[in-house]
Amino acid sequence: MHESAKVFLALHLGRWDLSVDATVLLNFAAAFLLIVLLWLITRRLTFAPRSFGQNLLETAVEFMEKQILAPAGLDKAWLPLCLSAFLYILFTGLPLGMLGLLGPQAGLGSAVSNINGTAALAVLFFVLSLFVRFKKHGLWGFCKSLLPQGVKGPVVILLLPVEIISQLFKPFSLAIRLFANMSGGHLLLISILSFTSIFNNIAVWLASYGGAIVIIFFEFFVCCIQAYVFTFLGASMISEAIGEAT
Amino acid sequence: MFKLEINIVFWTLISFGLVCWVVSAKIYPILAKMMQERADKITGELAAAEKQRREAETLRAELAEQQKNIELTEHRILSEAREKARVQAAGQFEALQEEFRALRKAKEEDLRRLEDDFYRNFEERVGKMLYTACEKVLRVSLTPEMQQRILQERFEELKKLKEF
């Protein structure tokens, strides 16, 4: 479906195609919506929270602190990044659900239902963790921190490639997990809705659209879970990079 | 099949970076400051409440101590007052008994004197009555000759006395 995404603005930078298609537009719409909502909430912040938005945002912040940063062992300095990742995935994933009935047929899809989008986020976290590891431990410490503690001698030669591969697979697993979970529901939605074009029957239509509505709600739930899982694993990756002093 | 779409990678990073910047620079500091202020206020109020609770506990303990002291003092004062009253009552009773004895003695003296007076008066009156009665008897029974003789005898006695 992404191959058929409509291009709204053709942009080329040398060999790189930076065109703005429906997926990119949906991403920007989600990011814009998120920023506007956050701006509206913070504009009317009160000392004693009264608005639903403020309560929700403060709950999200506390959730980040207690359910992601604390278990991962990160301090509050990483909260904005984790909160951004969580909200960004949530907001780019939720439009998929909201436009679910229209999206699959119109070729719409967000960054989190596209492997390129999830890979970009996963690689960003991976690069950040490498940077943090390098900054924290230095070049020698960086190399040493890749190995488990206490490993010496010829075992190092055996374990080093394995550990490097394991580190490299982390962003892959992050990207594929998010993509597969988000696009799984999406494909299921397409499959169910495709029955309407095969069987021209009112009962099939009702069943298809009823099932699609159920799946959309399920996708909301999956989106929340995946936003949490991605942020938590990303935070764990950074925490591991910070904490692995050898 | 995986197809690398640079535009999605690029714009995803740009949009995420934008969100990240807005959250880091504009949203989170304000929110965190407010939440921290609220947490500080709550912590402060809890600490103040705890302090006040401790003060109240101390005051209650002091009050209980004072009440205990007051009760002890009250008990002591009452005991002293009772003892003093008992001693005073005993003293007063003794004094009153003494006074009563003196008064009784005086009254007994008075009574004795009155009795004596009464008997003396009684004797006098009885004597007078007897005398009068005797006089009456004598007046009735004495004849003029006997009266004359008696007078004569008295005159004789007076003469003898005059001579003596």
TrEMBL record, chain A:
* Name of one Pfam family that matches: ATP-synt_A
User: Topologically, how does it sit relative to the membrane?
Assistant: Multi-pass membrane protein
- Supply the CDD domains for this chain: ATP-synt_Fo_a_6
- What is the name attached to this protein's record? ATP synthase subunit a
Picking any one GO biological process from the record gives: proton motive force-driven plasma membrane ATP synthesis
Give the UniProt subcellular location, in the record's own words: Cell membrane; Membrane
| GO MF terms, alphabetically ordered | proton-transporting ATP synthase activity, rotational mechanism
Organism superkingdom? Bacteria
| Main location per the UniProt record | membrane
Family of this protein:
Belongs to the ATPase A chain family.
Q: Which GO terms describe its cellular component?
A: plasma membrane; proton-transporting ATP synthase complex
| Organism classification | Bacteria, Bacillati, Candidatus Margulisiibacteriota, Candidatus Termititenacia, Candidatus Termititenacales
Q: Which UniProt keywords apply?
A: ATP synthesis, Cell membrane, CF(0), Hydrogen ion transport, Ion transport, Membrane, Transmembrane, Transmembrane helix, Transport
Q: Where are the transmembrane segments?
A: 20-41, 77-103, 115-134, 186-206, 213-238
What is this protein's function? Key component of the proton channel; it plays a direct role in the translocation of protons across the membrane.
According to its UniProt entry, this protein's organism is Termititenax aidoneus
From TrEMBL, chain B:
- How does the protein's chain sit in the membrane according to the entry? Single-pass membrane protein
State the Gene Ontology terms under molecular function.
proton-transporting ATP synthase activity, rotational mechanism; proton-transporting ATPase activity, rotational mechanism
Gene Ontology cellular-component terms listed: endomembrane system; plasma membrane; proton-transporting ATP synthase complex
CDD domains linked: ATP-synt_Fo_b (cd06503)
Q: Does the keyword Iron-sulfur apply?
A: no
Cellular compartments annotated: Cell membrane; Endomembrane system
Q: Give the keywords, sorted.
A: ATP synthesis, Cell membrane, CF(0), Coiled coil, Hydrogen ion transport, Ion transport, Membrane, Transmembrane, Transmembrane helix, Transport
Q: List where this protein forms a coiled coil.
A: 32-117
Which protein family is named in the record?
Belongs to the ATPase B chain family.
What this protein is reported to do is described as:
Component of the F(0) channel, it forms part of the peripheral stalk, linking F(1) to F(0). F(1)F(0) ATP synthase produces ATP from ADP in the presence of a proton or sodium gradient. F-type ATPases consist of two structural domains, F(1) containing the extramembraneous catalytic core and F(0) containing the membrane proton channel, linked together by a central stalk and a peripheral stalk. During catalysis, ATP synthesis in the catalytic domain of F(1) is coupled via a rotary mechanism of the central stalk subunits to proton translocation.
Fill in the subunit field for this protein. F-type ATPases have 2 components, F(1) - the catalytic core - and F(0) - the membrane proton channel. F(1) has five subunits: alpha(3), beta(3), gamma(1), delta(1), epsilon(1). F(0) has three main subunits: a(1), b(2) and c(10-14). The alpha and beta chains form an alternating ring which encloses part of the gamma chain. F(1) is attached to F(0) by a central stalk formed by the gamma and epsilon chains, while a peripheral stalk is formed by the delta and b chains.
Name of the protein described by the UniProt record? ATP synthase subunit b
Q: Which gene encodes it?
A: atpF
